[in-house]
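Mods, move this if it's the wrong board.
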Amino acid sequence: MNFEISIVDIIALIFSSIAIYLAFKNRRAPLREKLFDRQLDIFQEISNRIIDVEEKMSDWQLEKETYNNKKEIERIEDEMFEASEKLQIYLLKVEIYIPEEIHDKFGDFLNYINIMKAMVFNKKIADIDVTKLSNKVWDLQQEIREFIGLESLSKENRKLSKK
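Not the wrong board. Structure tokens:
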């Protein structure tokens, strides 16, 4: 048996290896893209629900301090409790799509919401508590922005649109 390997055979082997490597690497790209799209949708929905809870708590505080209409306060409390329950249920449904690095932030936020709900239930909420909630909402939104790479994607899009 005579095995002769030519330069052409080596080049063909190298190109074949590269093609196999690229095919293997790129087969996950559609999966990554689909996951990222799903995460973006989920983060948008979570943000909307978080803002809804924050708004209800602010409305509750305003009503309590300004008008003190007991029926209106009770109505807002019911809406606030319902909004926070919907947020918690939604997070449970989609937590499989939420990466660990941000999942813990949502857990901390929900714990704070539950403390706020208990304070509302016991009529012990103060101005600083709603302000602190607003700060936590802001911090959580910044975590989401950082996770999805919003700034770098925006810069990249600006560069592409200038060409």
